[in-house]
Design goal:
The structure is a homohexamer of 265-residue chains. By secondary structure, the first copy, chain A, is an alpha/beta fold. Chain A has 2 domains: 152 residues, Rossmann fold, CATH 3.40.50.1860; 105 residues, 3-Layer(aba) Sandwich (Rossmann fold). The first copy, chain A, is 43% helix and 15% strand. The first copy, chain A, is built from 9 helices and 9 strands. A 5-stranded mixed β-sheet of chain A has the order 4-3-1-2-9, sandwiched between helices. Chain A has a 4-stranded parallel β-sheet with strand order 6-5-7-8, sandwiched between helices. In chain A, helix 1 packs across helix 8 and helix 4 packs across helix 8. The longest helix of chain A has 20 residues. Chain A is globular and about 55 Å long. The two termini of chain A are 16 Å apart. Chains in contact: A-B, A-C, A-E, A-F, B-C, B-D, B-F, C-D, C-E, D-E, D-F, E-F. At the A-F interface, helix 4, helix 7 and helix 8 of A face helix 4, helix 7 and helix 8 of F. Chains A, B, C, D, E, F: Belongs to the HyuE racemase family. Chains A, B, C, D, E, F: It comes from Flagellimonas aurea. Chains A, B, C, D, E, F: This is Hydantoin racemase.
Chain lengths: 265, 265, 265, 265, 265, 265
């Protein structure tokens, strides 16, 4: 590998409480020559602690695009949009210059489908299903989806009582395997972290943690870019706005200021 | 019809140059008891005069959601998001309360498919095709799409030299009918206004103007809501963010201020 | 609106018992400047009181085509084929001249999908499902269909004991929402009239009555035709039989005589 | 084989000019213990000599259903609806009792796909494409269709100047193979008879004649019914109208009278 | 029919225990002028008595291709690959020369869909479902599949205790009809022979035995080849390896030796 | 990374001429702690120098499965099946124990779709298209495929005259971008090695070399397995044959002997 790979893990919420935990998880699992900046969107868009609603997603879109552009300008090789909806993945990819952008959902499915033919996604609320299903179908993975199984918890509850969460996630995963014939499980929220190993051990099928999945796929993408020149296409639907227009419209004039940054080397 | 229907036509760009023209077009074509407010997003998001790029779309998302919420609070029956990408249609629908939200693309296709089995969309640039195609497939109309035909003009050129535009649009539409077996034509940009009638007359197939289409479908939706109680579902994927959360996160605290408003009665 | 819109509501059965009720329903809900002729097929094809079977559909096809041609010649702007199978919709559209033809199923789905992302259809018998599902898939709405739910009643029972029907329709709709994650409900038979409001109020999701839906979509189509020239395409698959052939084959020589006509002004 | 198989080849037009030719073709190619009745619909529905339009199809629907019922009552084992649109195939199957109903399009595709992975259909006019494509997609064969190629002739011209027809069909088939990567060819009209062998010999790919295809598939179906009890399902969507209703509605009271019948033993 | 048709029924396992039974079944059901050679793959590939796993399928692929080539050289008109997975059907078809190759799954579905609109497949183990479903979707029949129903027996158990098997198959078929709305049933393993008639009689829907289905479809294909020249295409994806390459690579040098052959005349 | 990753790159042909070149390419591009064994199938299956035909694919299936089993027993973490058809990928995955199996086609597409929305595949001959298209559709990537473009060369010609090959590949890629609106290019044969960089530089879109793609995806998969326990599922369709059966049938008794092995450390 030629140089240090620079990756940003961006929680697309204005809420940094989990950043330290993600940073630890990343420290333990990244390659030695990868530098990861863990950050969130700062409180510019309100202190939403979740993105469960399309409304919340849309509310962070503007800032997310600015953040993407900023990360690209700072020379990051890859950006992780740290939410399982993969919000605005195609949009961010358009303005990312030479930086690759990945999302936890897409990353997790790629891994699950190298190990099995059908996966289920364990979600917090039935509410999430329609948007995630649309995204998965657009990726092309609709025929490989066994089911969604909801634990009827909201995002903020996942890390409150770990025993309850562990038990609910396990039961949902078990039902997905038994009833829906899932052959692998994807935990459908980045805040379902810390649980994959035990469920995997008990169920004896692959259980994918989306944050870890996106970290490793981001590293891989960054490496491929550096070594093979496999950087984002800028042709047709991937064409970025012209510089002249960006200047004329006064876009991106101010530097985007991320939330507190934890740099993991 | 029980009362005056209140409709907002919102140009989702921070650029009001065309508002007067749209207002005139609307004045001529609305029902007598409809009141339409024509407005744009104000210059909050830069003076972009087009939304050709996903980047630009995402840049207006936050404001668009706030605008939607504001329009809903002001008691509008229906909101038109005045761009053929139908940007953030599902997102806006989530936060729209009892207000129905429509987009020009969806509205135009509904009309075209009552009059024909296959339609083509005349777009400005090949760049647009992928996003529009994804949207059309998600609506379910993919199998009824004959083709996209691009005139290789950007949004701002459409209204510069009307003869050139008229000629290019006609040629593209003619090719769509002859080569791609389109049976109807949709003009794939709200700024392709003013041309549909002549092309329709010459080609002898329905040619749908997306702004007019969305105006009339909005009126229809507003009417149905008022008279049959057919207002937006708030179940499952349509569930809106809880009021308590909106308050806690401090969302929508400030009233959204639209750009200059032309009120058409 | 330029003139009086002329619409025909045609019950495609040789049985006029419900015509009065439909006429009342229409009177209450039409625009003031719409004139609607409510009629049925006369007893030419037997006194079938339902179209539950493909056989019955096919048995009325010949007359339906003649009726369509006649309505077109009489200058109607739009024709409603008053059966939820939308029988011979594309066929009737071919011979309808400048008259737009709509069906209750297509009309209802358009309304449901402006208000929700997934709908269920409440049908009388499982028997109906395959044909309706095929039609819905051909329209392109297959991915938006949550489910069919059958109340196991035949068409003629719907209006016998209103309490029983109301209760069965409500239960089926409730199950569709709870179990199948429907976000809106469509009553899948024109004879399920009179029930939508109460179910809507109790379930708090949109419940679409197909007759009303088709009436209003017909008015809208008629209006658009009159004001924007958006009349049926006659290109490619929409091409009508040549006049010379019609004459040579002796088709439509005799005037089609509708059943008793109730004219609602 | 237990007994003589009885098959009806029904030209669903009120025009018997080609019956003799079909009878000869059938005589040459049927099994020895098959009895085929070649007939047409009589002139009841006008003297249409083609079914190119949906209108014409619908105009013969009522009679076709009556004919089907009659054939079933007369004890035929299988009925061929002799038009490449396979008009009202599913409808006729509903009322066919123990008689199997087949169509030339479905029959031809089954044969083509045992010999190749992709087929093209040579049609008379572009007009036909949409309806045939819908039917083929509903059968499930959409992904195996390489293309339609039109020779721009109407049905009645096929048998006028055989040299011209042969030349046009060959050229269209050749283009389908070369340009559209067809691996087999289906002649998309029963009146394209008499040409398959030469094209097959010259092009060296299978060229399927739809009348012969339907004859042989009908014989096969008849045989399977007789020997294995594989007769039409009457469950769910295949349920036939109840006898009581048929009686009550006065359907099928009069015996259907076919056109002149040529009995081929 | 011009001559004796020569057909090979090949059990693609190195295990001949059932050959005699198949031979009897074939004797009873073939046309009089058909000669069928019933054989298996000899023990070259181990004594596997089933092909339930992809592994087993792949293990017989090489020999199956050699067997196909050999059968073609021996002048067979059609080859039946006697396993419901239709293993390597497209591959065998490539090297089969003028011999048509059919499989029990494809053959059974063709028959079921002439008699009904939806079928279910009764399989031995859930394990089989994914591969069979993929195959059925590739054929194009995915939308006509009501369900798979598993009896949780392995292949070798089917013929052990006939009462148990009969009872399990019947119950699964009954559930498929009642719960999944199947209108016909396909027994999803060639070793489910001997049961179709009773289930058919009790359930009153078509129940297709896959061995019989493939026998009759093979005879039909052989007949069509002989009489109409409808032999395998060798164009594009159907192109066979060039003779020169086969020679150069030393393929098919040795004659393939089948297992014991039962010749049924 | 915990330990040395062991990967096998297996050319699934009995022909080792290119092994040295692949070994060099791998040496240059692998991670330092990866050990790669480059080998081929030995001449057991004839000296085929390509797998262009389904026949050739099937001919190597048996040995490929044995090779997979052997590699798994030798403790490899990942196996690359070095042919762009990804032959028998799902089959090999079934018997691979804890070893992950990847193919060049699947690997390349994953990379292309992180950098673009539409890709084209540059193939040697039109012959290949059908099989590759089927595979790509089964993976789920069908809607992201812009086109296949054939250079009309066979596999063995790619490395004969590099200038000719370079020129033909470039022209095909350029046409794919210009005409088919591809946004990235995949070289559709492992023997198209050595060309990606120059085409990428000239065309300015990502051009994916399938061998390199599969090498890096194999390393990634091996790493994920080692560090997160993400090894192949053995549930449902992924269930492997029972050990008892393998023993009883005498499968895999003899150790599979690979061709000459080049070990790259």
């Amino acid at each position: 590998m030629k140089d240090t790979l620079k990756i940003m893990y961006l929680s697309p919420i204005g809420f940094s409480a989990y950043d330290t935990i993600f940073a630890e998880m990343i420290k333990e699992n990244k390659f030695s020559n990868t530098e990861v900046h863990v950050t969130s969107m700062s409180s510019r868009v309100g202190l939403m602690d979740n993105l469960e609603y399309r409304t919340y997603n849309a509310l962070i879109a503007t800032e997310l695009i600015k953040a993407t552009r900023q990360a690209s300008k700072e020379g990051f090789d890859a950006l992780i949009i740290g939410c399982f909806y993969d919000p605005f993945l195609l949009d961010a990819r358009e303005i990312s210059g030479d930086m690759v952008v990945v999302g936890p959902s897409h990353s997790s499915i790629e891994i699950a489908l190298k190990l099995s033919n059908k996966f289920s996604v364990i979600i917090g609320q039935t509410k999430w299903e329609h948007e995630m299903h649309s995204t998965i179908k657009e990726y092309g993975y609709g025929e490989h989806l066994a089911s969604f199984r909801s634990v009827e918890m909201n995002v903020c509850e996942f890390q409150k009582d770990h025993d309850i969460t562990a038990s609910k996630l396990f039961k949902a995963a078990e039902m997905a395997v038994k009833e829906d014939h899932a052959e692998s499980i994807i935990l459908g929220c980045t805040l379902e972290f810390g649980f994959y190993e035990k469920i995997q051990e008990k169920l004896q099928v692959p259980v994918i943690d989306p944050s870890l999945a996106s970290l490793k796929q981001a590293e891989q993408a960054a490496y491929l870019k550096r070594n093979f020149g496999w950087k984002p296409s800028r042709k047709w639907s991937c064409e970025a706005p012209p510089c002249a227009d960006i200047e004329q419209f006064g876009l991106f004039k101010e530097e985007f200021v991320f939330g507190n940054r934890i740099i993991v080397k």
